[in-house]
Amino acid sequence: MLTSTETVLLKSRNDKTRSMAQNGRANARLFSQMEDGRSGKAMNQKTVRRILDTIAEMFPDAHCELNHSNPFELTIAVLLSAQCTDETVNRVTKDLFQKYKTPQDYVSVTREELEHDIRRIGLYRNKAKHIQELCRILIDEYGGEVPQTHAELVKLPGVGRKTANVVVSNAFGVPAIAVDTHVERVSKRLGLAAPDDTVLQVEQKLMKRVPKEEWTITHHRLIFFGRYHCKAQSPKCDICPLLDLCREGKARMKPGKPAKLTGKRVKGGT
Hey, which of 83, 96, 191, 207 has its CA 20 to 30 A from 51? Predict the structure, then answer.
């Protein structure tokens, strides 16, 4: 039989234990949420839908801005666009696509001549090498045509995941999300991906969250959003309808507190 004093002490101990358990569960939930936030899992589908609808309203006509008239020209243009702006690529391909119309045209000139024709493009020597090697493979193995599958495209010189995704989605109508610097930056700022995710991880998370039938158009809208609104150095945070989802943007809007840049490109998965 417990005395009244013992009963009080036992109750106090039980209350303390119960409180510790509750705090432990709360801390566990908080830790789990923090982990989910870092891994990009915490965002619910309603928030994803809001992001997709917002960028759709802002950029309803988003599209591939690389000028091309067929899958082969698109492949060449995307290859040239690595570490180069679309505007520069379009200026170069305006004359390039008049001179070179087929893979045979590219292998019929010397490497030096092709390098000269694309000299305004960054890394033009390496790209000229890849273009001629790619064209020889197209001639020898594909009858001069661009293969239509992602698996075949990534085997071509100078063609990585991003290029292959752009080609299959824009030239052949296969749903895909290509992750370039704009898509990566915007995805990380809005919490669609974690700040330290690789390019491949960003792609995989977007594919999981975005309905498949919207993959290609979402790719274009994310690019437009990043290129014209959520810019790398001067994002338009003050007029952004998604500011509440962006930790960096909210930090930028606090006077006297410069925001730490997020969404920096992480190697891997290209």
Answer: 83
